[in-house]
Amino acid sequence: MAAGPPVGRDVPASQTLSRGIRVLEVLADAGESLTIDDVAGRLEVHRSVAYRLVRTLEHHGLVVRDSSGRIELGARLAALAAGVTRDLQAQALPELTAVANDLGMTCFLSLLDRDEAITIASIEPRHAVASVAQRPGARHPVTVGAPGKAILAQVPLDQWPDGVGTGLVEEVRVVGTQGYATSHDEVIRSVQSVAVPLALRDRPPAALAVVHVVDSTDPRRVAERLSRSADAIRTALQG
């Protein structure tokens, strides 16, 4: 299953390029700065290989190193990311902001990327005492979490990842019936998510979602608010 045709999925056309991309993914997933040894360990390569990859990425402004040599993603990467699905983000951000502030929950937009759900835009509530961060670029298997289920509800079963159990098939079937998905402790412990499908013409399947610390909030009320914004985004893009 892919948002576009995979190129050399099993054997990368360029091992060096593939490793460089993996460095960026490792830093994004880490949520904190890493040392060269950390990067080498997570890529399972020699320290000298990791160093050359980081130096190349640093030269292009995609990663930066602090005075102690620890590495994190660079500002240039954010500039490149801003060009991805620019029109979708432009239409989505006002709605994400409205939902986040109305519900006091972090609201985000996820797209299908191969077998993963990837966050492309996220807004935290303005006045919430505590909120759950959901950074753009965060990704998780599409088979877990409310956004993943909302995305799978738009994908034919024969295009799902291998090894999906009957439990998930039933959960996604329910999404198609009730119009929203929920999850609890599936991606982050003690965190709940509600998501609605966002089907857009000529784009990968998407989901509009919120994430918050588990409480007694009625997911139907959250889903109704998300659905209004999903409709607004869809109408704006089709208009």
Q: So, CATH architecture of the largest domain? A: 2-Layer Sandwich
Average per-residue pLDDT, rounded, comes to: 87
**Assembly context of the chains:** single chain
Order of the strands making up the biggest sheet: 5-4-3-8-7-6
Beta-strand residue fraction: 15-25%
Quickly count the helices.
Answer: 8
Q: Per the principal axes of the C-alpha atoms, what is the gross shape?
A: globular
Helix content percent band = 40-55%
Number of domains: 2
Return the structural class: alpha+beta
Would you identify the CATH H-level superfamily of the largest domain? GAF domain
| Low-confidence spans | 2-9
Distance between the termini: 29 Å
Q: Output the CATH topology of the largest domain.
A: Beta-Lactamase
The counted number of beta strands is 8
CATH class of the largest domain: Alpha Beta
Largest sheet features: 6 strands, antiparallel
Radius of gyration: 19 Å
Element string (H = helix, E = strand): HHHEEHHEEEHHEEEH
